[in-house]
Amino acid sequence: EASANDQRTRYEHPLVSRYATKEMSLVWSPHTKFSTWRKLWLALARSEKKLGIAITDEQLRAMEKAIYDIDYAYADEMEKKFRHDVMAHVHAFGKAAPEAMPIIHLGATSCFVGDNADIIQLKQGLELIDFFVLSI
């Protein structure tokens, strides 16, 4: 898990420093986005295994252990190479969980992680707003 002082745990936008709470900034941070992608890939792999695709428990455990082990420098390097953010993070996840590399993102499109992560982050943001409004 990233520390609160890590720049990847803060959403960067000119208005954030003025108006966003620390909690909301974390919801929209790169760390939340990319760890959510990894959780989605793990959920996909678990479902594919249930459907009979050859995925081992060891591969799933490796993915679980690497959810928050994000090498951002490596992901940035891969993004320059592939010119594709999702493929960059597939490779960064594969580096953290090498035994799972063949099954990460198996059969998925970029929209699978991008759109679903957006929806999850929207839900988290709305839950925060709900909490803050109810506490007034």
3D structure, described in words:
The chain is 65% helix and 0% strand. The protein is mainly alpha-helical. The chain has a single domain (7-134), classed as Fumarase/aspartase (N-terminal domain) (Fumarase C, Chain B, domain 1), CATH 1.10.275.10. This is Adenylosuccinate lyase. Keywords: Lyase, Purine biosynthesis. Belongs to the lyase 1 family. Adenylosuccinate lyase subfamily. It is an enzyme of class 4 (lyase). One of its GO terms (cellular component) is cytosol.
Q: Order of SSEs, N→C? A: HHHHHHH
Taking all Cα atoms into account, the compactness measure Rg is 16 Å
Low-confidence segments: none
Tally of alpha and pi helices: 7
Given helix and strand content, the structural type is: mainly alpha
Distance between the termini: 31 Å
Largest sheet: none
* Structural domain count: 1
Percent strand equals: under 5%
CATH class: Mainly Alpha
Helix content percent band: 55-70%
CATH topology: Fumarase C, Chain B, domain 1
- What do the pLDDT scores average to? 93
What is the CATH homologous superfamily assignment? Fumarase/aspartase (N-terminal domain)
Q: Outline, from the CA principal axes?
A: globular
Overall number of strands = 0
Tell me what the CATH architecture is: Orthogonal Bundle
